[in-house]
Amino acid sequence: MKNIVLGTAAILAMTTTASAAEWTYAHYNQPTHELHLGVALEMAQDVEEATDGELTIRVFPSGELGAGPAQQYTRALDGIADVTQGLVASDTFPLPRTMLMELPNLFDTPQEAVDVLWENIELFEPDFQGTKVMALFPNNPAALVLNRPVSSPADLEGLNIRASSAIGAGIMEAWGATPVTMPAGDLYNALQTGVIDGALIGIDGINAYRLQEVASHVITNIPGNITMFYVVANRDSWDGLSEDVQAEVLEVTEHALSMKGADAFTVSGEEAIEAINASGNTEIVELTAEQRALFAEPLPAMVENYLDQVSAAEGFDAQEIYTAISQ
Fold first, then answer.
1. Regarding predicted confidence, which is higher, 161 or 89?
2. Alpha helix stretches (DSSP H) within the chain
3. What is the average pLDDT across 207-217?
């Protein structure tokens, strides 16, 4: 009888092992980055706990399964990794509905944006036909980092300001500046040498690229934009899970994981403010309500123009989505 019991236990153990799955999770950030620590590793831990080990996730940071942000979505789509994490505006795969979240003067915090997005997630799902969305979240609202103080759009007239997307470029043009495109890694030297006069960037990015060492002012409380990030799973990998495991994964992803991404950026932003203040080189200036209104005034025309362009190019009603997320 003892041998029979042991044999049955061994068979059960083998069955459990055989039914368990391991996913790969690829991203391009360094292991010290807030998105690796606060999103990728958090998802891996939460999923393993939620599924009692039936699904585990191995995270590959630093571009180990493919460098840079441009092809991350495609790597999930093609199954190079089971899960990828990327930057919506930098990806070569178009996600035009999700990009509307980056229009200016919509959200004051990343948590607010997460709540609004997931309340209207059905409007964004057509962007992700070939994958399963695990998380969508933004960084902190953008700030201006410059080598001069500004208090109105008139102060930006004719300046060369780096913007990271078409929406950012539209904001700069609305404010009278000349938008410049360049990788974030080039900002330090470009600011230091005067190639650009400033940049529109999340305050966490200012610290990540040490821009407080080469800039004199950081302007906050501008009616700028956020930058959207995604975590998606390969559709075949997702469909290969049992319904029970899928339900357990969804409990710790979607809105919950998105909020962890937002919280990670909030903490990173707070650390950035401390680092900027500690630098002794850069002054943080928060716009007054009156000054912010001056920056907000030219933006509706820019937004209307962008919505018209997207609707014509992509064949869906961009205004409908914008109305839903701006209420």
1. 161
2. 2-19, 34-35, 41-50, 72-77, 96-99, 110-119, 166-174, 187-193, 203-208, 235-239, 243-252, 255-279, 289-296, 299-314, 318-325
3. 95
Fold of 22-94+106-138+228-268: D-Maltodextrin-Binding Protein; domain 2 (3.40.190)
Specify the CATH number for 142-225+275-325; select among 3.40.190.170, 3.30.70.2120, 3.60.21.10, 1.10.8.60.
3.40.190.170
User: What average pLDDT does the segment 155-183 reach?
Assistant: 96
Q: Is the pLDDT of residue 280 over 50?
A: yes
Mean pLDDT of 243-270: 97
Residues of the chain with CATH 3.40.190.170: 22-94+106-138+228-268, 142-225+275-325
Band of pLDDT at residue 13, cut at 50, 70 and 90: very low
